[in-house]
DNA sequence: ATGAAAGCGCTAACAC
DNA sequence: GTGTTAGCGCTTTCAT
């Protein structure tokens, strides 16, 4: 059995209470006593048992993070940055993946409650999710939680996310300024907040500019293959630009187009979203909309920590983080 | 305070011991009693406090996983598959990232010990790591651990990994069979096991075939930019093929080459490694060596579970998982 | 400033 | 089969 507080106490000639106080930096312990205790603790290689500690303190010092897909660079970057942010906080991050399944998310939320996380960050699934009542149990358990990257619109809950609507509008405005008029849109399922925002931006922009109404293509998935396969047979007659909701899809579009003998951007322009590594890896550098993933992660982590610690109130409205349009060659025909 | 075992016991008219036994499926509890207890537990929404449980059982039901970089799809896929494998095991996975830093890995190992993980999976850093003595503390703490994807050669420890040496040799043989002779190699730091294996395969192959000896290019990093920048100024005079230790680097090479006006595979062939999404996303589909990431994850997870549970012995020698060469267009000049 | 002792919520002998 | 009870290792009043 590993060394416990009692061993340290005995060796230092004090009580366990004193050891506990000293090691936790309580001010009322004599400096010399503390030093001695610390020395003994180090000498013995004492490490408090975290489970005993959590039990006694009735705190878990644990923050949860749920992402739909850890293999998606967008979410893994989010996780990495959150991890970094919590590094010095005394809190640990428990990462789970919902695999884009509402049922899975539900199960994970339940596990998180079971594990007594003190706060939870949720990046919602990218599928329609009608019944999110399971999230109420977090409130029931007194566990603060926040959405990141998106949210469930049926819930009046704060979310740390980028301004997807404005970002998409800026992108379209930029393309418009470059002379593009007939722009097709490849999106994900409707009734998914983070896609809906961009869909709305698209519709609004077309209307505001008096441009021809075009059907938004709602693909079932938003991965490379989904867009690649779609664009293989897509009717691109008269289309000057294809706008996608992420960079992977844009890549899928580019590769499918070039296999059809269409060159990007000479014959048709393509734009992505996120400014992920894929936008740089692309055969023709991708015009895209930068999401500040790092900023989101830091902001969400700080906020959930505040909530966990001080029980500070969740300010209802947080201004979304601005996006930035990055123009590269894939929309350069007329630039 | 949330409902505890005592509440269930009182409500069901039994003792806490009975509740505990019943809920943990102990056979000696009367079926009816068990049913009643389970009903009460559900009704009250009872969830055992995991920390009290772990403290009492002196078990954490926690497995650790350390990866160098969670934003690397190779490792995030590993994590996802391990997560899946543990889903029904009663164990949870704690994921940490060493950010390719030995010091960080050391710190994480220390944390893992502190958290009493019952087993640890370590994907080593991709940098030379001379002093890995901190891993001895795992033995000291009686925590079984295994390497995944690579290993530290100075430690006689089992590792679940693919047969990188054979994989690279097969790849070279395939290229050779396609008529390629003058093949350059872009690798990572030397003194990193998973790179050394491939470097050795390269050297051995050249020697065995009596081919001209070529210097292996040891890049500092193995990411897209590292290879992209290198290939921008690389001397490719007479080089028929560039072989990289991962797909990202191959992409970097391809894009740098095409900016130099060299076409792949017509002017020069490029091969990657891993068969990640990048090999398919590539402008010209990448010839690569498939690593069975799923297989590694499953195998490692099962094994570490065995070690954690039964304390089964770690069989010293596990046969490495075979790789598979995937031939695509990027080496198709002579195909 | 320090110690004694009562929990924290659960498990596991051991007794019946 | 079920109950009693003594821990698991730590924190935290409350005395002193």
Description:
Chain A is an alpha/beta fold and 335 residues long. The first copy, chain A, is 43% helix and 13% strand. Chain A is built from 13 helices and eleven strands. In chain A, the strands form three sheets. In chain A, strands 2-1-3-4-5 form a five-stranded parallel sheet, sandwiched between helices. In chain A, strands 7-6-8-9 form a four-stranded parallel sheet. The first copy, chain A, is elongated. At the A-B interface, helix 4, helix 5, strand 2, helix 11 and helix 12 of A face helix 4, helix 5, strand 2, helix 6 and helix 11 of B.
What are the SSEs and their pairings?
2 copies of one chain form a homodimer.
Chain A: H1 5-12, H2 16-23, H3 31-44, H4 50-57, E1 62-67, H5 73-86, E2 92-97, H6 102-114, E3 119-122, H7 136-140, E4 145-148, E5 159-160, H8 164-177, E6 183-187, H9 193-209, E7 216-218, H10 224-232, E8 241-244, H11 247-259, E9 269-271, H12 277-281, E10 288-290, H13 293-309, E11 324-326
Parallel strand pairs in A: 1-2, 1-3, 3-4, 4-5, 6-7, 6-8, 8-9
Antiparallel strand pairs in A: 10-11
Chain A binds a DNA duplex (16 and 16 nucleotides) through helix 2 and helix 4.
């Amino acid at each position: 059995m590993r060394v416990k507080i009692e061993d340290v106490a005995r060796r230092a000639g004090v009580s366990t209470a004193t050891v506990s106080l000293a090691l936790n930096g309580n001010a009322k312990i004599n400096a010399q006593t503390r030093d001695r205790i610390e020395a003994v603790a180090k000498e013995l290689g004492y490490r408090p048992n975290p489970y005993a500690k959590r039990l006694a303190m009735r705190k878990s010092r644990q923050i949860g993070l749920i992402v739909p897909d850890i293999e998606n660079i967008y979410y893994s970057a989010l996780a990495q940055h959150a991890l970094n942010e919590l590094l010095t906080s005394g809190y640990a991050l428990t990462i789970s993946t919902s695999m884009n399944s509402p049922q899975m998310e539900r199960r994970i939320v339940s596990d998180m409650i079971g594990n007594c996380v003190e706060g939870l960050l949720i990046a919602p699934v990218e599928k329609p999710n009608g019944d999110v009542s399971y999230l109420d149990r977090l409130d029931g358990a007194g566990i603060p939680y926040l959405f990141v990257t998106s949210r469930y619109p049926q819930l009046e809950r704060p979310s740390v996310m980028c301004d997807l609507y404005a970002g998409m509008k800026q992108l379209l405005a930029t393309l418009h300024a470059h002379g593009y008029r007939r722009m097709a849109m490849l999106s994900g399922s409707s009734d998914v907040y983070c896609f809906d925002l961009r869909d709305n931006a698209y519709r609004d922009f077309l209307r505001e500019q008096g441009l021809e109404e075009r059907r938004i293509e709602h693909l079932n998935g938003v991965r490379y293959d989904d867009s690649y396969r779609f664009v293989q047979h897509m009717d691109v007659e008269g289309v000057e630009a294809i706008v996608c909701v992420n960079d992977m899809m844009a890549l899928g579009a580019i590769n499918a187009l070039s296999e059809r003998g269409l060159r990007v951007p000479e014959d048709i322009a393509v734009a992505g979203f996120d400014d992920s590594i894929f936008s740089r890896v692309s055969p023709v550098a991708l015009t895209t909309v930068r999401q500040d993933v790092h900023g989101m992660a830091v902001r969400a982590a700080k906020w959930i920590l505040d909530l966990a610690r001080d029980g500070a109130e969740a300010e209802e409205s947080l201004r979304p983080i601005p996006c930035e349009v990055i123009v590269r060659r894939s929309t350069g025909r007329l630039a």
